């Protein structure tokens, strides 16, 4: 929390990266089953919530995302007010929201989900509703599969199901994380629609995707890990990279620049590199910023 008062508070909404992502199946309702290891990183949007007489009023700066019912933050606030009717403290019944975007939109970093989760948690405190973490997670899942992770008070977790089953794991430590966004959005829906669980040669299939689901697929990090032991993988890379080859070029350049590992995050297109040596990360940062304005060096979130 940055600041708080009786009728106003400001919260930071972190980005995430996926250190691993396997698609393990598909439910009859169309949702994909996943096994993914997610890590929060210290790059933040900011959400300020203020009580008002009625309704949801959203103002966004830093992006062209619509400030209406198509916005995940707006939907999170509307859902919260509906679910907590009669439970909210004080005479005010609505909320005014100021969201400042620092994360790129549709980038694979979970910005929209993080903002929605921050809104739910913040409104719970703002109105003194005392909603349980289970309640908030249930509502969050109605908004998006990543929302429960951002609601959870853990910097890193292994998520299964459609993202709602969370097991806290050790946070990434002693690595600098370089985020490189190539400057175009990628629709998560499009990526999943084009991900086929088939047995074709060269394609991801269900059997391969299930390998390692119950294993410790990415090492824990009580100390700096040997780069050779890093196991980074993302089943969605082949889909997004086939349409946007620049993602593969960025990965190769990060590894050539000294990254211990590099991977596309989520459905893309942002690529991250993990650097054990900060000077190497800073050198890559300077190089990439000449070509991609949204390139930043961040630290893993270690505590919440």
Helix content: 25-40%
CATH architecture classification of the largest domain = 2-Layer Sandwich
Q: Could you say how many structural domains there are in total?
A: 2
| CATH topology description of the largest domain | Ribosomal Protein S5, domain 2
- Which CATH class of the largest domain? Alpha Beta
Q: Give the overall average pLDDT.
A: 87
Order of helices and strands: EEEEHEHHHEEEHHEHHEEHE
Number of strands: 12
Would you kindly provide a written description of the structure presented here, covering whatever features stand out?
This protein is an alpha+beta fold and 304 residues long. It has two domains: 3-168, Ribosomal Protein S5, domain 2 (2-Layer Sandwich); 176-298, 2-Layer Sandwich (Alpha-Beta Plaits). It is built from nine helices and twelve strands. The strands form two sheets. Strands 1, 2, 3, 4, 5, 6, 7 and 9 form an eight-stranded mixed beta sheet that branches. Strands 10-11-8-12 form a four-stranded antiparallel beta sheet, covered by helices on one side. Strand 4, helix 1 and strand 5 (94-100) form a beta-alpha-beta unit. Helix 1 (72-83) runs parallel beside helix 2. The longest helix is centred in the middle third of the chain and has 16 residues, at 111-126. The relative contact order is 0.18. The model is unreliable at 1-5 and 197-227 (pLDDT under 50).
Secondary structure blueprint with pairings:
Blueprint: E1 3-4, E2 8-26, E3 32-52, E4 56-61, H1 72-83, E5 94-100, H2 111-126, H3 133-143, H4 147-151, E6 156-160, E7 165-168, E8 176-180, H5 188-193, H6 206-210, E9 233-234, H7 237-243, H8 246-256, E10 261-264, E11 271-275, H9 278-289, E12 295-298
Parallel strand pairs: 2-9, 4-5
Antiparallel strand pairs: 1-2, 2-3, 3-5, 3-6, 6-7, 8-11, 8-12, 10-11
Helix pairs in contact: 1-2
């Amino acid at each position: 929390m940055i600041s708080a008062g009786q009728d106003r508070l400001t919260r930071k909404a972190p980005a995430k990266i996926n250190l691993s992502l396997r698609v393990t199946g598909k439910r009859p309702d169309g949702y994909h089953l996943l096994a993914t290891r997610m890590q929060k990183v210290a790059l933040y949007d900011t959400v300020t919530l203020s009580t008002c007489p009625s309704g949801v009023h959203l103002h966004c700066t830093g992006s062209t995302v619509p400030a209406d019912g198509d916005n995940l933050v707006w939907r999170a606030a509307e859902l919260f007010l509906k679910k907590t009717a009669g439970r909210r403290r004080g005479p005010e019944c609505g909320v005014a929201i100021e969201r400042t975007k620092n994360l790129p939109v549709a980038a694979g970093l979970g910005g929209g989900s993080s903002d929605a989760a921050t809104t739910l948690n913040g409104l719970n405190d703002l109105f003194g509703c005392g909603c349980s973490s289970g309640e908030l997670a249930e509502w969050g899942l109605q908004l998006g599969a990543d929302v429960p992770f951002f609601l959870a008070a853990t910097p890193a977790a292994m998520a299964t199901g459609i993202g709602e089953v969370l097991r806290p794991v050790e946070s990434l430590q002693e690595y600098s994380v370089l985020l490189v966004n190539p400057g175009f959005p990628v629709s998560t829906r499009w990526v999943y629609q084009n991900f086929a669980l088939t047995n074709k040669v060269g394609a991801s299939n269900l059997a391969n995707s299930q390998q390692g689901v119950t294993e410790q697929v990415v090492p824990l990090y009580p100390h700096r890990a040997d780069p050779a032991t890093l196991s980074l993988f993302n089943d969605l890379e082949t889909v997004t990279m086939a349409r946007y080859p620049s993602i593969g070029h960025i990965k190769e350049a990060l590894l050539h620049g000294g990254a211990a590992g590099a991977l596309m995050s989520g459905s893309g297109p942002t690529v991250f590199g993990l650097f054990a040596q900060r000077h190497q990360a800073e050198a890559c940062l300077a190089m990439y910023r000449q070509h991609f304005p949204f390139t930043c060096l961040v630290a893993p979130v270690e505590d919440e």
